[in-house]
Amino acid sequence: MSKKNHRKKYREKWFEEKPKEPRLHPETKKSIWAIVFLGIAAVLILASFKSAGPFGNFLYLFFEKLFGRGYYLLPAIFLVLAGVFLTSERQRIYQITFLGAGLFTLAGLGLIDIIFPDRGGWVGRIVGFLEIPFGYTASIIIVIIVIIISFLVTLNLPIKIKKPQKALEVTEPLKVSEVVGSPVSVAEPTQTKAESKAEEIQEKIQEKIARFSNRPKTVALKTLKGYVAPPLGLLRSSIEKPTAGDLRANANIIKRTLESFGIPVEMGEINIGPKVTRYTLKPAEGIKLSRITALNQDLSLALASHPIRIEAPIPGKSLVGIEVPNKVSALVRLGSLMAYPEFSSAGLLGFVLGRDVNGEPIFTDIDKMPHMLIAGSTGSGKSIMIHSLLISLLYKNSPATLRLILIDPKRVELSIYNNLPHLVSPVITESKKALAVFRWAIEEMERRYELLLQAGSRDIQSYNKKYPEEPLPYILIVVDELADLMFSYGRDVEGSVVRLAQMARATGLHLILSTQRPSVEVVTGLIKANITCRVALQLPSQVDSRTVLDSAGAEKLLGGGDMLFVSSESSKPKRIQGAYIPEEEVRKVTDFIRENNKDFWEQGEQLVFENGVSPVGPISEDGLDKYSGDEEDELYEEAVRVVSEAKKASASLLQRRLKVGYARAARLLDIMEARGVVGPGEGAKPREVFIKETTNNYGG
């Protein structure tokens, strides 16, 4: 008995796991049914004109007795059924579709019989008996309700009432302080909203075309006291539409591929973004998400698209998202996003990030971050993101509310911002001066904490409310390539960055760090622990992605501004297509600010503090020399004496004589070289010593 049961279970298991392939594809079957229904409708129409032969005449006489004047509902119903079979993706709707069609026919015949007695045939007469208990008017209302319901059931259509969207007018200015003068109004052209019809797959697939349109707006840009803000007309705001390919076919491919691996799923909505299209699905109960994510390469092969990214689950939803690259990407221009009212209503440090996979504009605020790390390989859009961030802030702030410190070791990316009134100092291109800037920032942070303590204020916002006549501006430090600084002054730079990241938020100092080499030597554990807001653009490996985001995914991005964004509010990476601004538009904005604000710093009194450096007025390069820190090492004089006596200079010599580590010995050599005490290094040879006896002012 047990052997028979075992064989039976084995046969059932075998046939369940390996079903035979159907001879006809489901789509082919539906097409055949649609053609059959079209043929029946054609025969019924011809029969009414007595052009279908004797059999057609028999059909006409039979249905004319049965349905009366409602005979013509029959070909109409069959035409509707043919359309449903041709357009619907659902494979289990046939019974409910026929039920709806039958109800529609019955209710239609009943309505004919009630309005025109004895004209609805035998079937109509049966339904027309409703008039006896409900009366003429009520029975008509009941039958019409049944007709509407049956029509919705047949086509599986919901009733949606959309409220007309009123054109929005934004007359409030972009937030700047001390706004006076006449506004410079820039009216954005009205854009038409692009929408695409919803497709139905399983229960419901709604395709949401990304909202790449602007509502009509008027953004008022006003002049600050002595400062003229750039108009939005300098930026292009054209809107492009992406091409996602055949959505229905891709959804079917995803469904069939997963089912072939034993993973039944129910397809959900489709979201078209600028760069990718996200297909959502709900797996059956008991299916592990790891089984779906493990099929990344198989789905990529089936869709003939690479790379694809699987988000399991989508934050806030019980769905899995499969992100497939679009055939043609849409360019997200910075100008089109800056026209949104959300941008003008954001804080002084609010800026544009881009659009998400739903096409929604994404704005964020540096004050809430309060620091940000950007990582991306060459060509991923890292520099363009920095430009869009800076331009967004320049549109919202005058030099009285925001000061910039730009550190550009590559010397070419940020030089376009030189001579702007917002700059604390000229663009820093030398690693040594960059280290001096960090030391100045730490001193400025400590000075501001003293001011906050004396004023009894918790942060810079409350301080500026108490003293609106002498507000403290925000200071944003932007580093275009952190790796160069870390390789030159690793320990010092890391210590400065960590200290600023830990303490500077309340005083209005913020860091934007970017690197194209996110190794653990550059993005150290201390830096990651204190900078929770991170952006990963396309990265070469999963290791780099985990270094930045603590999760994989950035290696599957498409480049060109495609990014994953992690903030303190959401630890789950969010995919965003970054805002694009070309170099010529950056140059237009910076040239406008320079030409219209040449004498900005001569029009008012500058606040000079105890250290002689004004956080509002610009700092010369000579002003940074006092922060170079060369004189801080107490062993400097002893090191000069050692090399002058030995008549040679090397790190190993200083290590032995002074009993210090290599890093400190090398730093002492750098200081002596900068002061002209020793010559430059020549490989393994000792450095040349230029002094022969010690003095009290070496190299000085």
From TrEMBL:
It comes from the Bacteria. Residues 359-546 form the FtsK domain. The keyword DNA-binding applies. Keywords: ATP-binding, Cell cycle, Cell division, DNA-binding, Membrane, Nucleotide-binding, Transmembrane, Transmembrane helix. GO terms for molecular function: ATP binding; DNA binding. It holds the Pfam family FtsK_gamma. The chain crosses the membrane at residues 32-49, 69-86, 93-116, 136-157. SUPFAM superfamilies: P-loop containing nucleoside triphosphate hydrolases (SSF52540), Winged helix' DNA-binding domain (SSF46785). ATP binds at G376, S377, T378, G379, S380, G381, K382, S383. SMART domains: AAA (SM00382), Ftsk_gamma (SM00843). InterPro entries: AAA+_ATPase (IPR003593), FtsK/SpoIIIE/SftA (IPR050206), FtsK_alpha (IPR041027), FtsK_dom (IPR002543), Ftsk_gamma (IPR018541), P-loop_NTPase (IPR027417), WH-like_DNA-bd_sf (IPR036388), WH_DNA-bd_sf (IPR036390). GO terms for biological process: cell division. Belongs to the FtsK/SpoIIIE/SftA family. This is Cell division protein FtsK. It comes from Candidatus Wolfebacteria bacterium CG_4_9_14_0_8_um_filter_39_46.
